[in-house]
Structure formats: C-alpha cells, structure tokens
Amino acid sequence: MDLGNLGLFKLMSRKMGWLTQRQEVLAQNIANADTPEYKSRDLKPFTFRDALTDNRRLTPSATNAAHLAGTRGPGGIAKDQKVRDPYETAPDGNNVILEDQMIRQGQTVMDYQTITNLYKKQVAMIKSAIRTGS
C-alpha cells in the first residue's frame, strides 16, 4: 500500500514540502540580515483551499429540493489579505528584522512537528486497523 496515494497523506506531504521550502527562505533571510539592499522574502501562505485545487474543482450539487442553497455562493468567499509590514527599512536598504524571522522560523518548526506527529498517528491507526482485520 502506497500511503502517498491517499488524500490525507498527500496533503500532509505537500504541507511538509512547503514548510521545508519556507525554512530555507527564512534561513536565507537570516543569513543576509546585514547585506545592504537585501529584501526579506517569504513564501505564499499554504492554504487548505489551494492545496485541494490540483486541476479539479469539486462543486456541490443539490440532490433533493429540500436542500438549502448555502450562503457562500459559487466558488466560496475569497478575501484579499494585505500583509502589513510594520517594520522600517534600515538606512542601508535592508528590511530583514531578525526577531520577526526567528518567530517565523519557530512557527515553521512547530508546524512541521505537528504534521510529523499527525503523520505518525495516521500510520499507527492504519497499522492497528490492519492488525485487527477491521
């Protein structure tokens, strides 16, 4: 059985890949904290909606006239998020704030550990189901 083909494991693998890439970007930001004219970078946020859109769109359909139409409308509600950067740029043009980068790096590590633990729990649950024959 290839766990990579199961939806949950595929989603967790994509999230772990994104977290790995983000850790690399944050490490580059920290390494260039004293480089003149260096602008800090970050990845586009990993969202559940984006993770599920791999060239297929699932649309709900009413199978009964008594079903409610819903409140979101077609395509759901998309909110544009503007990221406000409250920090100033240094006189040399560098806008890397080490404290901010370290907070982001810590959050990335915690998210990676959470996904790893979830992965372990799901594998244990599948092993348990196989052993009991249920």
From TrEMBL:
Residues annotated as domain Flagellar basal body rod protein N-terminal: 21-39
Subcellular localization, as worded in the UniProt entry: Bacterial flagellum basal body
One GO term (biological process): bacterial-type flagellum-dependent cell motility
Pfam families for the chain: Flg_bb_rod
Top-level lineage group: Bacteria
GO-annotated cellular components: bacterial-type flagellum basal body, rod
Keywords: Bacterial flagellum, Cell projection, Cilium, Flagellum
Disordered: annotated segments: 57-93
InterPro entries listed in its UniProt record: Flag_bb_rod_N (IPR001444), FlgB (IPR006300)
Function noted in UniProt: Structural component of flagellum, the bacterial motility apparatus. Part of the rod structure of flagellar basal body.
Family: Belongs to the flagella basal body rod proteins family.
Quaternary data: The basal body constitutes a major portion of the flagellar organelle and consists of a number of rings mounted on a central rod.
Protein name, entry field: Flagellar basal body rod protein FlgB
Classification of source organism: Bacteria, Pseudomonadati, Pseudomonadota, Alphaproteobacteria, Rhodospirillales
